[in-house]
Amino acid sequence: MTETDAILWLDIGNTRVKYWLTTNDVVTEHFAELHLKSPLDLLAGLTYHFQSFPVQAIYLSSVLNQETNASIQTLLRKISPNVQFAKVRDGMHNLKVGYADPFRLGIDRWLQMLAVADPNQKQLVVGCGTALTIDILTGMNHQGGYILPSLYLQRNSLGLGTQGVKVENHSFLNTQQGTDTLSAVHNGILGGLIGAILFFHGTHSDHKLVLTGGDAQLFAEQIKQYNSNIAIRTQADLVFIGLKKYFQN
Q1: What tens digit of pLDDT does each residue of 95-131 get?
Q2: Residue that terminates a domain, selected from 65, 85, 105
Q3: Residue 69: CATH number of its domain
Q4: 108 part of the active site
Q5: In terms of Cα–Cα distance, which of 127, 132, 128 is closest to 110?
Q6: How far apart are CA 84 and CA 59, in angstroms?
Q7: Which of 11, 25, 90, 108 is catalytic?
């Protein structure tokens, strides 16, 4: 790989496909879209878009199963013959995975930690995506973590599991007590997840909070309102930063 290569970076999650296109190591195009459980359909459109680009390589993170990933690789080779998936590598850049079986750790969580891992830092890496993930990172050692249903998974499950609560889509804005069912549901769910983050931070109060993902800013603002002294860093694209570290170093 040379400095002038155009590279397509893909992050394929449970509900979204995101990409960066870099040229001369500068992000020249970016995109994020719900794939509605049909990532191949969305990627087919992207493949058509990128056939006119001189893409030298495609590097990606995917949380999907092996069969789907094989189909994705076949599709993406229409753009470039060099298609490579990131895989969890225990000990890469001295980052030690805290799972007994390192390969059971999600690639997205591992790349997020790879992006920020620092031997001199203690961090709680919080992924605010389809699931809310919390990983404890002490220096270069992953200590394990937690996975909770996200704002939207909780809202959907409440609507499916109750007869009397009619859950309509609404913005998650604050944690004040609700004055109607709509605000009670949304504020309660947001407050519950904020409470979970604060609880786990309380058990590791010497760790800095690092929030990433689409709802990172929302959670950061709510936490700061509760306690302005908590050290928080927000970074929306840690998976891509981790991908670049994985393939370029």
Answers
A1: 999 999 999 999 999 999 999 999 999 999 999 988 9
A2: 85
A3: 3.30.420.40
A4: yes
A5: 127
A6: 5
A7: 108
**Residue 1, in any domain of the structure:** no
Place of tokens 């980052």: 95
Residue type, 46: L
How many angstroms separate the Cα of 224 from the Cα of each of 185, 190, 232?
A: 22, 14, 8
CA-closest candidate to residue 11, choices 130, 96, 93: 130
Look up the pTM and report it. 0.92
What are the Cα distances from residue 100, in Å, to 65, 104, 142, 218? 21, 9, 11, 33
Residue 59: phi, psi to the nearest 5? -120, 135
Helix, coil or strand: residue 169: coil
State which of 50, 85, 120 marks the end of a domain. Answer: 85
| Conformational region of residue 246, where left means phi above 0, alpha means psi within -120 to 50, and beta covers everything else | alpha
Range of the domain at 133: 92-243
- 44 and 64 together in one domain: yes
